[in-house]
């Protein structure tokens, strides 16, 4: 009898008539997003959109895989506020191995409901610096530092993390590894990989929220939109540099050839995009001034006969300004030499060529009209005594000569008075 029951059970199981407990969880999906590179307005908008999308979809949580050297303070504040306002738990995971949460990344990580790090990562060095990556200076240093300390301490207190270390990260730029961060209660856990992370956070209790409940097998990756990719591309120093060069070249061509319109329009748009990028990059004011000075040199080359000296000064100024345009204090920002050399060659050559053409047009003798006849040879058709007619370029002109000249002789045009040519006889023997 027992054997029959077992056989019936197996048959029903195979046919699906008896449900079998599944190892798969029935929890909501987990949403994931990757944030790498500098923190910029585009990054802040992207993360805010991701948080909203996860909340509207009813996700179990949003996992942010973070790797950043830092970024703008205002964008960091926007990201922290977005995490606070999130309808779903936000988990910041500093990964993969070798990644870092530096400067602004410290505040974003500590603001998360769950802060985690992968082995071989580090966090810290949150001292405020200027856009060039250097210390702010004595005038504003204390004010800015105190404001940043208050900001990060409020984050640590809200999430129950190490307030003392958070202050040290700002004032003394201290950094720690993932194991030290766990021991100092800066983060909540260390996870080998994403699978390990989801296993550790599933069912985790949170202060002021329901426990995290997710189905680890349901993972929804949020990709960057076209708008975000464009804005991030504009924040690349190489792209910003090329846009600035295109903008200056366009405006320069418009100034040298007024009324062409198209180069001026393209140049204006390129400069606006470049200036947008500059607000997210460590721009060196001296570099910008040198590039503008180079443009002034090229414009003066069109007005002054410097025999190329102003063009040489412009190219040198353009080269130095390009090198100095972005500070490289953090080892990442700056324009690549593979971009500087060809861009400088093309734009500098363009400036020199346009200046040379304009200068030549201003200095060469007119080829058309009355002024174009000066110095030309004419044939006397009616005797000049002192007035008569001459033929030049197949046209008959009234002419006047102080000395009598017979018909058929050749004369040289030396001036023009209204529609009458002033001529002088040519010594045929010497000619």
Q: What is the strand and helix layout of this fold?
A:
Elements: H1 2-15, E1 30-36, H2 41-56, E2 61-67, H3 73-84, E3 90-94, E4 100-102, H4 104-111, E5 114-117, E6 122-124, H5 138-159, H6 163-171, E7 175-177, H7 178-183, E8 189-190, H8 194-201, E9 219-221, H9 226-234, H10 237-256, H11 262-278, H12 285-303, H13 309-324, H14 337-363, E10 377-380, E11 387-392, E12 395-400, E13 410-417, E14 420-425
Parallel strand pairs: 1-2, 1-9, 2-3, 3-5, 4-6, 5-8, 12-14
Antiparallel strand pairs: 6-7, 10-11, 10-13, 11-12, 13-14
Helix pairs in contact: 2-3, 2-9, 3-4, 5-6, 10-11, 10-14, 12-13, 12-14, 13-14
Short summary of the structure?
With 431 residues, the protein is of the alpha/beta class.
Strand content: 15-25%
Largest sheet: 6 strands, parallel
Give the radius of gyration. 38 Å
Order of helices and strands: HEHEHEEHEEHHEHEHEHHHHHHEEEEE
Count of domain modules: 3
> So how many helices?
14
The CATH level-2 architecture of the largest domain is identified as Alpha-Beta Complex
Quote the CATH topology of the largest domain: 2-enoyl-CoA Hydratase, Chain A, domain 1
Quickly name the level 1 CATH class of the largest domain.
Alpha Beta
CATH superfamily of the largest domain: 2-enoyl-CoA Hydratase, Chain A, domain 1
User: How would you describe the shape?
Assistant: rod-shaped
How widely separated are the two ends? Answer: 138 Å
What structural category characterises the helix and strand content?
Answer: alpha/beta
**Residue runs with pLDDT of under 50 for 5 or more positions:** 11-25, 131-136
What does the oligomeric state look like here? single chain
Share of helix among residues? 40-55%
The number of strands is 14
- The spatial strand order of the largest sheet comes to 8-5-3-2-1-9
Pfam families: NfeD (PF01957), NfeD1b_N (PF25145), NfeD_membrane (PF24961)
Organism: Desulfosarcina ovata subsp. sediminis
Domain NfeD integral membrane: 238-355
Domain NfeD-like C-terminal: 372-425
